[in-house]
Amino acid sequence: MQLEVHFAVAWAQVVEDPLDGAMERHLKDSKEPSGSIPTISLPEVTVSAQTVPSESTILPTSRQFSSYGPEMNIIEIPRDIRPVSQEEMKTVMALTVNDLASFNPSINPTQATGNIVSEPVIRGLPGTVFRNGMLVGFSSGGNWSPLMNTMAYGSLDIVTSPVSIIFGPQEFAGGYVNELTKQPYFDRFHRNASYTFGMYGDSFWNVDLGGPVRKTKKPLSE
Fold first, then answer.
1. C-alpha angle 189/195/200, rounded to 5°?
2. How far apart are CA 175 and CA 105, in angstroms?
3. TonB-dependent receptor plug domain: from which residue to which, for each copy (predicted)?
């Protein structure tokens, strides 16, 4: 579609020159009668327009400069991942989700009145907990979900970002934790035992045993 517009504009302006005789000199040079209003004729302007071709996607085709940040697609989610190994959890003697604040400054230690917090508070919001990529229970404001058991984890990932669509978001966009459970041992027999005690009745036993079932050191599925 082509659109052309032609127009001419006459612009009237009353000039008030503070200098004596300025108006008279202007009227004399333009040969216009005394008392008339000077006019200025603008050149002809042509305006052209065309329709924008329809796209098959609703995503923006150009970067928007309304905020600062890296150049990335709108469906990409920026995230910060902090892997925590089993050795690190043993070093700080992590027992609850509040102990994860030692590894990520975005985690806020908190305690609900009359109940133990089952989900970490990440950037001020309860973070969703996954175990091997699967949602762990259902919570309400960080409560009533299965408690964290660091003795059963080989490692865990603390992610500061909205939950990925692969996992499936449940609550808020502060972040989430993915607990990676221990894997079977196929090389040799492993054993470990520990006892932890402290004030306010803290007393924890932990026995970790594992090893190959068959003497060939191969899994039963082979």
1. 155
2. 12
3. 75-174
pTM beyond 0.70: no
- Hey, which residues does 207 pair with through a beta bridge? 193
Q: Which pLDDT tens digit goes with each residue over 26-71?
A: 555 555 565 666 677 888 888 888 776 665 555 556 655 555 556 6
pLDDT in tens, 80-107: 888 998 888 888 888 788 888 888 888 8
**Helix/strand/coil for 22:** helix
Question: How is residue 91 written in tokens?
Answer: 């070093």
The residue segments making up the domain with residue 14 are: 1-49
Q: How many domains does the chain have?
A: 2
